[in-house]
Structures are given as C-alpha cells and as structure tokens.
Design goal:
2 strands; mainly alpha
Length: about 500
C-alpha cells in the first residue's frame, strides 16, 4: 500500500512546493472556519434557551442532530472526493455551512434555528474529508505528522476566534450577530477556486482507473446500463433498510436487558430512544450489508470495499478510535461554557478567557504531538496525551475557583485537547487512494454518532437530575479516552509512509 521514505539532507519545511503549501493552507483555513461556525453555538446555548423559553437540554440536543448529519455530509463528500477530486467538495462544504449559520441568525422561532443548525451538519461533515485528503496527499511524508497536527489544530484556532468574538462582541451584537458573522468563511472559496490545484496523487490514480476501465470488457448500451444502475442502487438501498431494521430491533430487544440496573430509569430511556437506536443501527449497517451481499455473490462497489476484508478490521478500529475521541471532545468542550454560565453565573469575558487559553494551547500542542508522531509513531503520540488528560480533568472540574478552572482547562489543551492532531495524517494513511476520501469520511464521522449523545446526556444529568456539569463531563472524558486507547492498540502503525497512486482495490 505504502512505502517507507529515507531522510532528506535539507530542512523539512523547505521540501514542500508552493502548490503543496497552498493545498495545505486551503485545508487549514477551511477547517478553522468550520470550527468557528460550529463551536460558536457552544457559547450561546444558554441565551438561546432563555430567549425562546426552551429547556437547555433541548438546545443541546440540536448539537446531537448536527453531529449525526455530519455523517451524511461526510460520506457524500468522501464519495465525491474519490470521483471528481478534492477541491469541488471542499468549496461546496464551506458554502453550505456558512449559509446555514447565517440563516440561523434570522430565526423567528427555536424550530427555525434548530432546522438550519442541524442542516449545517451536512456541510460541516463534508469539509473534513475533502480538506484532509487535499492537504495530506499533497504533503511530503516525513513531516506529515507535524503538519497534520497543525492542520487539525486549526479547529482550536476556530474555537479561539469564536471565543474572542463572544468575549468582545456578544454584549453588542447578541447571539444573532454571532451567527451572522458565520457567513464570512464563504469568501475562502474564491481562494480555493483560483489558487489551489487538485491533488496530483488523485489525478494519477484517476488516470489509472480510467485506463483500467478502457481495457475492461465493453459496457452495455446506455439504456441497459442506466436500467442496470438503477436496479443495483435500488437493491442496495432495500438491503440497507432491511439490515438497519434488523439491527434496530435487535438493539431494541437486547439493550434494555444489557443495560438493566446500570442506569437510572430516565437516563436509560434517553439511551433507548428509538431515534438514537435507529441512528446507531444505521451506523453499523455498512459493516454488515456488504459482507452479506458478498456471501450471495454480489459484486461489491469500490467505495464499499472498506467494509470487506482486508480493510474491514482497519475500518472498524478506526471508527472506534474516532468514537472514543469524540466522546472525550464533547465531554470536555461542549457544555463547558454552559457550566460556567449556568452554574457559576460568570459574565461573557470570564467564560471566554479559559476557552481562549485552552484553544491557543491546543493549536501548538497539536503541532507538538504531530512532531512526536513523526518520531515515535502515530499511536503512541495519541495514547500518551489521552492518558495524561484523564488525570488533569479532575483538577478543573472538581473546583469552583475560576483561577484553577482557567489554569486546569488551559493545561488540558496540551493533552486531552490535543489528541486529535494526528487524525488527518493517520486516517488518510490507513487507506488506499481509491477510497481514501470515503474511508476517512466514514470513520471520522462514525464517531459523531455516539459522540453526539454527549451534549444532551451531560445536560440531562447536570440540569434535570441536578448533578451539575463537572461529574458527567469527567466520566465522559475518561470513558472516551479508554475507548480510544483500546482502539489504537488494536490499530496498525503508519509512521513514515508515503501515498501512492497505484490501484489497490481489486
């Protein structure tokens, strides 16, 4: 799949060409502005709840549905990335999330706002696979770890920018003005359209795929080919619905038995909600359906090869790794501002400060752990900060002193806050060029299915059950870290690999 590279006699930052720097910059800016549009909502959930007179748990629930729709956008973008290239899906995603955020600012009702914030998830999910593939495929292998860290660290800068806007402008422009500012990322599309070139690895791979198709037996006449395609798509859709239905009812029967006695009844009802079980069943359907179809002799499309041997285990462990990391992130971040606003009654400036410091440190820490990943391997460079982060979390969650909260949360940015830096490099390195966009999109956003449960679950325990935010946030952080570490131990190492345009899907 990939081959190791040798050392170069010159500095790593001199190796990339101008086009490689521009491609990386496009991914970096797209991800930073994606983060700005998404995380700004974390800072304004309490005032939105107050203005529309709805429970905070309901407002937090929109984050869950936004994250679930990310999977739809990611899979669609990943498929487009592997078919038409990386640039166009990246531009479409940026326009999508910018327009949705802008529209949400005009909401006359909570339902209107929720609709556009949830719809934003499609564009948000579409950005990562396109931007990561474009940036990482263009970058030399020996420094891909550190640049992956800095690329992913753009998320922290986006959150930092959102925190600055909140701290400085919220009292003047309110929550609506903060959402309207979210239209500005759309301007990035001009830069991508005119200055960024398509991935050379993808272009060469496309040429080889077209050559392979030219040498293949002649296809049926257009009419017959269209009918055959429609029949195939219909068959796969029916199969997906059937498998998802079976998994849904299996979960509905098994989950109450397995979880009985482990959770308080109302919390158990939250986890056994039909919508949640349906999403989980849909998420696991791709792992089951292609293998069932193969058993009856059906030819598996290239993009679904990631759910078949020899890629199945790799796809599964990558998805579990993402699930663990999303559990950590949304336990640590999603309701942090709400905790300071609702429980500690802090003003905007005091809420913004720890978020600004945390995210400033996140950016540099992701670059650092990315550098470490180039030296000791991807997995250890993620496992070490994840474990340390579990010991730091109690330092700021078990106090109400703003000074200690600020210091602890800022310090967490260097550890649990920085475990995401190697995602662009490690995920894209794990899969062949033909399916890199689809595979990284699916695995990354599969984690949002379970990670998306965190905001409403934490809010329910904190507000409805009166536990406060700190303890649910702490338990979620530790649980996520354990899941991520186990998945990484079971995953392959990819340090020192470079991408190839060779066809690897038979």
């Amino acid at each position: 799949m990939t081959v190791a590279i040798s050392d170069r006699p010159f500095a790593w930052w001199k190796e990339p060409s101008k086009d490689q720097w521009l491609a990386w910059s496009a991914g970096f800016l797209g991800w930073m502005l994606d983060a700005f549009d998404f995380t700004i909502f974390f800072l304004i959930m309490v005032p939105i709840s107050q203005e529309f007179g709805v429970p905070l748990t309901l407002v937090a629930g929109t984050v869950t549905f936004t994250l679930w729709l990310r999977l739809l956008g990611a899979f669609g973008s990943g498929w487009l990335c592997d078919r038409i290239g990386r640039k166009t899906p990246l531009m479409l995603s940026i326009l999508w999330y910018s327009i949705c955020n802008f529209a949400a600012g005009f909401a006359p009702s909570f339902a209107f706002l929720a609709f556009f914030r949830i719809l934003l998830g499609v564009g948000m999910g579409a950005e990562w696979p396109a931007g990561a593939a474009l940036a990482m495929e263009a970058w030399p292998a020996r420094s891909r770890g550190i640049m992956s860290g800095l690329l992913q660290g753009a998320w922290g800068l986006g959150f930092l920018l959102a925190s600055l806007v909140y701290g400085l402008l919220f009292t003047s422009i309110g929550w609506r003005g903060m959402l309207w500012v979210g239209i500005l990322p759309a301007l990035l599309c001009v830069f991508i359209r005119y200055f960024v070139k398509e991935s050379e690895v993808w272009q060469e791979n496309k040429r080889k795929r077209l050559e392979q198709q030219r040498l293949a037996p002649a296809a049926p006449a257009i009419g017959g080919a269209t009918a055959s395609l429609l029949f195939t798509v219909a068959a796969w859709l029916l199969g997906a619905v059937a498998v998802a239905a079976v998994l849904f009812y299996a979960l509905k029967i098994a989950a109450p038995i397995v979880l009985a006695g482990t959770l308080e009844p109302k919390l158990l009802a939250l986890f056994l909600d039909d919508k949640l079980l349906g999403v989980v069943a849909a998420g696991f359907t791709p792992f089951v359906l292609p293998n069932l179809m193969a058993l009856i002799g059906v030819q598996i499309p290239t993009q679904l090869a990631i759910f078949r041997p020899p890629f199945l285990w790799n796809t599964f462990t990558a998805s579990m790794w993402m699930t663990g990391q999303f559990l950590v992130y949304y336990s640590m971040i999603a309701m942090f501002a709400s905790w300071l606003q609702k429980d500690l009654k802090l003003p905007p400036g005091d809420v913004a400060l720890p978020n600004i410091l945390h995210n400033a440190i996140v950016f540099f820490a992701m670059g650092f752990w990315g550098f470490v990943g180039d030296q000791i391997g991807r997995r250890l460079a993620i496992i070490i900060p994840a474990v340390i982060g579990c010991f730091i979390a109690p330092l700021y969650l078990n106090t109400t002193d703003l000074t200690w909260i600020t210091i602890g949360f800022a310090l967490q940015g260097a550890f649990a806050g920085a475990i995401y830096g190697l995602q662009p490099a490690y995920l894209t390195e794990r899969f062949p060029t033909e399916v890199r966009g689809t595979a990284s999109a699916f695995c990354y956003h599969f984690g949002t299915i379970l990670g998306g449960l965190v905001p409403p679950a934490v809010t329910y325990l904190a507000v409805d059950k009166g536990l406060g935010f700190p303890q649910p946030m702490l338990y979620g952080t530790i649980l996520g870290a354990v899941v991520a570490v186990i998945a990484l131990v079971l995953s392959p190492e990819t340090k020192g690999m470079k991408f190839t345009s060779d066809l690897q899907i038979k």
